[in-house]
Amino acid sequence: MTEIFDNIRKLYRFYVPTNELAEYIEFFSESSAEETYRHVADNRFTVRMFPSWTPTCYINLGEPYQMVVGTSRYLVRKEIDVLLLRNSVVERFNLPTDHIFTIKFYPGGLEAVLGVNQVHLVDQVVRLETILPAELIQRIKRLTAFEERIELLESFFLSQYLSRKRADHYQTIVSNTIGTFEASGLVLNPGQLADRTFVTSKTINRYFHRVVGTSPKQYLSAVRVRAALTGYVANRNQFSPDDFGYYDMSHFYKDVVRFTGQKLSRLRK
Predict the structure, then answer these.
(1) Which of 116, 184, 187, 242 has its CA 20 to 30 A from that of 60?
(2) Does any domain span residue 2?
(3) What domain of life (predicted)?
(4) Buried/exposed code over 200-216 (b: 16+ C-beta within 10 A; e: otherwise)
């Protein structure tokens, strides 16, 4: 299964924060044995995810599994939990025995909540206990209900966030820039965005490298193609490339191939 092209979310339960964490954590999720069996039965399959520059924690509640991050393959043992930046393609090999709890942060969210700069995570698979207390991880694993894990983690993250709450100039500028880009219909370039936020293009570039780990051009390009491809897959008959800042369909097609390595013709099969 391939992210965006296929609805991989149907295999998981989701919870989206509605408190102060909503600005920094996109969602909590947990693989559902029932939904996985309903959609794929006992078959092995893979889930392929494209770059998103969103720090993501994977807490292993089940058996060992394998994943490929970029060009490297990893065996994640039963007792191992990991954190990825997802700055490259990630592919996870799934088994019926898989049971994984996921925490996905927005760009800059890891730093706002836990004080960890995501730039240092580029091209790495990090042991989660270097970011979260080992005892907290074990408590999460001992709990039996999705809701209980959510309650424990939200309480911990909120306490961490509130203890260091302050105006983070870098993160604020990056968040405002992303928001302005989305509000513009995904059409403004980094120079135009810099003008809207009253800073220079050089400053915007420096802030994105500090908070996200890549240039504003690369990150915003990924935002646009992900949004456009999701819209195309949902309703290709009413899809218009203009709605996502593309000149024409050819421009959109080229961006999809560059981003995913796959052609849209696969959807017509």
Answers:
(1) 116
(2) no
(3) Bacteria
(4) eeeebbbbbebbbbbeb
